[in-house]
Amino acid sequence: MSSLSLSCFSQQIFEKIFDFSNTDAAWDMILTSDNSLLICGNSANGLVLIKTDLEGNTLWQKEKSSFGYEVIESQTGFYYVAGSSSYMAKLLKINSDGETIWSKEWNAQPEFPKRLTHIKQNEEGYFLLSGQMDNIYSQPPDAFTMITDTLGNNFCNLNYSLSIIVQDLILDDGFLTLRVDLDYYGGTFISRFNSFCYPHSTVSYDSLSGYFGDFISDNIGNYYIGLHQLAKSDTSGSILWILDPYQDFSFSNKSILLSGDKIISTGAHDIPNSQWPEFFIMICDTSGSLLNLYTDNTYLSQGGRKILEIDNAFYIAGGAKTNETNSDIFLRKYSKDSLFTYTKENITSNEEIIKTYPNPASTDINIAFQNTEYHMDMMLDCFDIYGRQVHNEKIWKGQQETRIDIREWAKGLYFAVVKIEGNVAGTGRFAKK
């Protein structure tokens, strides 16, 4: 059986597994000022902080009694973790050795538990915090935003009884907070606030849905929103494009990274008839064209949670189900060059020789050819994302099209390759949904 080398994902540099209890998962990861990685995660027992070098070697790891969801390094070199403890929202200050300097809690009634989920620091040194307050008497939570000084003293806060979940908090265009809120019933909102937590503007995206999404700005007036779809919008709320490879809302884009003219997304992909989703990496360009998609069901669970680009490499932290009972924290490193090797702009200039439709497809894929009247010795090969050949047939002189039954093929991205006298003449891509 022949194969096509897809080195973009096959050359993973390393993977590290961190096991604390039976339900471990990373929630966030940052590059620290001493050129190390700090992973913030949770186990069944509480907050887990893991500091490693860039080769994944553990420098120290600490467990805390509280839970944590996002970590930052402050302007003074301390780490701050947004989280919760019991039914209270909690902010922790951590030194470079992982020891707790102090913690600040904001009380709430047991029937209305609070948790901090996001933290940023503005240029003036103040902390911008957001989170949610649950209600045991009804399902939808309420969101809140607050601002504190470096000692955790709260001097500005605002609660929103809007049945929303704060999914991300960023700083953009001079406004202190910019958030993506997901309505419990599926709507998506972007809200901007001034330095006094006063709402400046809100736009709604009814066509987007999902949970555990990410949100970034390109600083030139566009947002990339990761939910069950990956979308691009402008600041007025206009959707510029939506990317959903299988058109079935099965992807949770949990972390998005803008790398030059490409968008890298990682998260979890739902598998039919499986309790656990699989890990994925998706690459597209800024116009929304899918360039590559990799799924890996070796480890199931929460998939990738955070992706960073450091020194021509990508680091991804997340949660991996390593056996029937355990879910562990993982850290993976990929070469940027290998990740981008087999993408649209690197394909031969004769790509237009192939057209694939419908795309995505579920039962049959039609592959149309051009300029075949000029050649005799032509072959069509189809490969899955791992480089395994799944189809092979001869193309006759003048043949315009072929139809392939793909009902038994696994969901995923596939590559069609036309060879003339043994040399690659054109390629196409399509997705099985």
Report the β-strand fraction as a percent range: over 45%
The CATH topology of the largest domain corresponds to: Methylamine Dehydrogenase, Chain H
Query: Radius of gyration, Cα only, in angstroms?
Result: 23 Å
Query: What does the oligomeric state look like here?
Result: single chain
Sheet with the most strands, sense and barrel status: 7 strands, antiparallel
State the end-to-end CA separation: 25 Å
Q: How many individual helices?
A: 2
Shape: elongated
Widest beta sheet: strand line-up: 1-27-26-25-24-23-22
**Roughly how much helix do the residues carry, as a percent range?**
under 10%
CATH architecture of the largest domain: 7 Propeller
Structural class: mainly beta
